[in-house]
Design a protein that fits this description.
ATP-binding, Rossmann fold, hydrolase, globular, 14% strand, 3 domains, alpha/beta, 7-stranded parallel sheet, nucleotide-binding, helicase, 42% helix, ATP binding
């Protein structure tokens, strides 16, 4: 009897036969139909199975499931499809239980289904898409392509995947705009790499000259997809703008129509989902939203506290930013934190702002000057210095650190009001990682306090959060 007819006779929809544990689920249904005692079924939706099947018809089945649930020695990761090798590597990195986004997403990703995943910042999205890659690296070159919006994030993903690589002979290649490999070395690197990580612009440059290596891609990942593929906008003459990521995705999907596609972000709107479907994601792709629908701009974790403070209205040698920097240094000294992030608008120079902090006696750096190299040692040295307070202040933009993980940072300062609520979500998400407590402080201009307070209130109201004012005695 076909799976479809089995589902019909059991009053199940055909969807359950394809979305659950593949052949194991078919075997479960077959034995259930024959009224035999079925094997234990590991499912991500036990409540749905219990509600859908009338267990009273099949004697002893409910008690069998309950008994096996109690005696099962499989871990939560094993139940989601993670193999023993990957689980050992997770334990070595002090990861023992799957996070919520991993519980919802891994069964779908291991079934090689395309997915669009929305989850809070710091909730474990990177590891969610890395686990299926690590267990199914493939034997072909460039079997997995991970596209990220910035070189800094590419560097961090590269170092993250090295932690869980089961076999060091399997190659992971990080490519960036500063990559100066000669043509022959690029060929060798691509031929030997199971995973390629890079920004759209750099990957597109390589694709246009080395397209042969990208014709057998099994998995395409778009990390921080809302930054890679923003909603289509029109230029001055009314023509739709085309970004490198658009062209890269079009070429990858043209040559790899059966590749699994994964998109992740903390903010995935319904318009973005439609855009992704137009760009190669099928309408049958699973949309996994780990935030309630009421948070249409994304959800800021509840463990983050939101504050604002007003800088002095006096004239500073460095202008308005100088007044804000003075306020940040005062709050930073009082906080007893070793290190912090300071966000500035894109139109300002991160190096110039870092220089002002240095003039005031702080060990400050501009992020883009530090995290550029693919070398694991360089990145680890930067993180260690930042963690230990050797680097006290890192000046950056929201785009630069989008998706990056600084688990030791508990406080961040914002020197401007983001244009969109979604941008605030990503800024706030740099602190309070993995359910730790965090504080985000927005510094307002004292000369324009009322106007800026109204703008900040509107942005936060869209996210259903409120900010408390810091008052000095």
């Amino acid at each position: 009897m076909s799976t479809f007819k089995l589902c019909q006779s059991l009053k199940l929809s055909h969807r359950y036969a394809t979305t659950e544990a593949g052949g194991q689920y078919k075997k479960f249904l077959t034995m259930l139909k024959r009224q035999q005692e079925p094997p234990y079924l590991y499912t991500s939706n036990p409540d749905i199975i219990q509600e859908t099947i009338d267990f009273s018809v099949y004697k002893g089945l409910t008690s069998t499931i309950q008994k096996q649930q109690k005696t099962s020695n499989l871990s939560l990761f094993s139940q989601l499809g993670v193999n023993q090798t990957s689980e050992q590597l997770l334990r070595q990195n002090e990861i023992h239980e799957p996070l919520f986004v991993q519980q919802k997403s891994l069964p779908i990703l291991f079934a090689r289904r395309s997915a669009i995943i929305e989850s809070e910042t710091g909730s474990g999205k990177t590891l969610t898409y890395l686990l299926p890659i690590l267990q199914n690296l493939g034997n072909r070159s460039c079997s997995n392509v991970i596209v990220v919006p910035t070189r800094e994030l590419a560097s961090q993903v590269y170092n993250e995947i090295l932690k869980y690589l089961p076999d060091r002979r399997l190659a992971v290649r990080y490519v960036s705009g500063i990559d100066e490999l000669q043509e022959r070395k690029i060929d060798t690197a691509l031929r030997e790499s199971n995973v390629v990580i890079g920004t759209p612009k750099r990957l597109l440059e390589i694709f246009e000259t080395k397209s042969g290596y990208f014709r057998n891609v099994r998995r395409i990942v778009l990390d921080e997809v809302d930054k890679l593929l923003p909603i289509k906008s029109l230029d001055k003459i009314g023509m739709a703008k085309t970004k490198p990521a658009d062209k890269l995705l079009a070429m990858l999907t043209f040559y790899n129509k059966r590749a699994q596609m994964i998109a992740t972000s903390a903010t995935v709107s319904y318009k973005l989902i439609q855009e992704l479907q137009d760009r190669g994601f099928t309408k049958r792709s699973s949309v996994i939203k780990c935030s309630p629908d009421e948070y249409k701009h994304g959800k800021v974790p509840n463990n983050i506290q939101h504050l604002f403070v007003v800088s002095e209205a006096t004239t500073s040698p460095h202008g308005i930013m100088g007044n804000k920097i003075k306020m940040i240094t005062q709050l930073f000294r009082q906080s007893n934190e070793r290190s912090t992030l300071v966000f500035i608008p894109r139109e300002l120079s991160v190096q110039n702002v870092a220089d002002i902090f240095q003039e005031m006696g702080f060990a400050a750096v501009a992020l883009y000057k530090k995290v550029l190299l693919p070398s694991s040692n360089e990145f680890e040295k930067f993180l260690e210095a930042f963690k230990e307070g050797e680097i006290q202040i890192v000046v950056c933009t929201e785009e630069t650190v989008r998706g990056m993980d600084f688990p030791f940072i508990n406080r961040a300062f914002l020197t401007y009001i983001p244009t969109l609520p979604e941008d605030y979500v990503h800024v706030a998400g740099r602190v309070g990682r993995a359910n730790r407590k965090g504080i985000v402080t927005t510094v307002l201009d004292g000369a324009d306090e009322q106007s800026e307070r109204k703008r900040l209130k509107r942005r936060l109201a869209a996210l259903k959060i409120k900010a408390r004012k810091i008052v000095f005695n």
